[in-house]
Amino acid sequence: MSQKLQGILDSAETIQRSFSEPTSILVTDTKQILVQVRASFDTTNIPAGTRLDSMPPNPLLEESLRTGKVNKAEFGTDNDFGLPFIVTWNPIIDNREVVGLLITTTSTEKIENLRNIASELSVASEEMSATSEQLSNVSHTISEKIQAISSDSESISKMIEDAYQVIKSVQEIANQSKILGLNAAIEAARAGEYGKGFSVVANEIRRMADQSKESSVSIIEYLEKVNAAINGNNSSIHEIVTMVEEHTASLAEFNNSLDLIASSADKLMSSSKL
């Protein structure tokens, strides 16, 4: 037996313990199994002396023996072990000649779990990013609508202010009409019998002036209440717009964080590849 092959054979258990994950070891020469050191998950039992040609055909094993090439194959959970693993066929070369194989079967359960977590993380990140983008669009739309309402409210406030001026003019006219009516009544009294008809008209003018003044005062009071309400709404609208803008900015930062999470998930997925 090759000295190098013998050294590996003697160190098989030490080699097994050097792996960070559960690993089974098979050492062969070119014809048969020399030793099997099983991990806890390994349910196979291959006795020393088992001929390689008596085992199921394995192109990767045969290629490694024939060419000295290292071969690997990864398997999922659909197997007798019930867990994912990777098999590596390492040629043992002595004096430029393949004298045997060191076959390792290593559990990749933890790595597979990391892959699943990375995949789930990536999917969740994409879903959260899509939701965040929708919220951002909604916030932007709300902000635009509120600003439009605020603009309309400001226009209404301007219209109310214009109405104030008109009503004040009406009040002034009413005051002047009342004075004119009073003067007319005085003159009608002076005119005696000839001024009676004119007196009736003068009194009616004074009465209508008083009614106009009272109505204009009521309208002003009402407009003041409306204006106060609109101003209050404008103040609340401006606060809401500010909050929406801050919320939109927060969503943008949240999207950046999601991008970082997605990037980390991709890196995690890449690093778990064997």
UniProtKB/TrEMBL annotation:
<keyword id="KW-0807">Transducer</keyword>
<dbReference type="GO" id="GO:0007165">
    <property type="term" value="P:signal transduction"/>
</dbReference>
<dbReference type="Pfam" id="PF00015">
    <property type="entry name" value="MCPsignal"/>
</dbReference>
<protein>
    <recommendedName>
        <fullName>Methyl-accepting transducer domain-containing protein</fullName>
    </recommendedName>
</protein>
<dbReference type="InterPro" id="IPR004089">
    <property type="entry name" value="MCPsignal_dom"/>
</dbReference>
<dbReference type="GO" id="GO:0016020">
    <property type="term" value="C:membrane"/>
</dbReference>
<feature type="domain" description="Methyl-accepting transducer">
    <location>
        <begin position="107"/>
        <end position="274"/>
    </location>
</feature>
